[in-house]
């Protein structure tokens, strides 16, 4: 019980919302689930991604943004409106960047 109290205290002392020892595995696993679902180049909404991967929609959106970053491969993430523009439903497509450096 004392160990749990120490971990909670350590969590509250940290000023960053990200704590590596608590968040790394969960976020890495979620990112991999989104990657594997989206790497087929098909279009999908955040809800579809979330339902297929069990990753919350906000986290799926963050993963898609991460895939554009250099540290995650500088991949292309396209987006387009699905249905009527007034509906505001967006769908996304991941295009994997292939490194041709030898």
Output the CATH class name of the domain at 42-102. Answer: Mainly Alpha
Tell me, briefly, the overall form.
globular
- Reading the helices and strands in chain order gives HHEHHEE
Outline the low-pLDDT stretches: none
Indicate the structural class: alpha+beta
Q: What's the architecture of the domain at 42-102, going by CATH?
A: Orthogonal Bundle
According to DSSP, the number of beta strands is 3
Count of DSSP helices?
A: 4
Major sheet strand order: 1-3-2
Helicity, as a percent range: 40-55%
Terminal CA distance: 54 Å
Radius of gyration, in Å, reads: 17 Å
Give the integer mean of the pLDDT values.
83
CATH topology of the domain at 42-102, which one?
A: Arc Repressor Mutant, subunit A
The percentage of residues in β strands lies in 5-15%
Report the biggest beta sheet as strand number plus sense, adding barrel if it closes: 3 strands, antiparallel
Compose a concise summary of this entry:
The chain contains 4 helices and 3 strands, in the order H-H-E-H-H-E-E. The chain has helices at residues 2-13, 20-38, 46-53, 57-68; strands spanning 44-45, 76-81, 90-95.
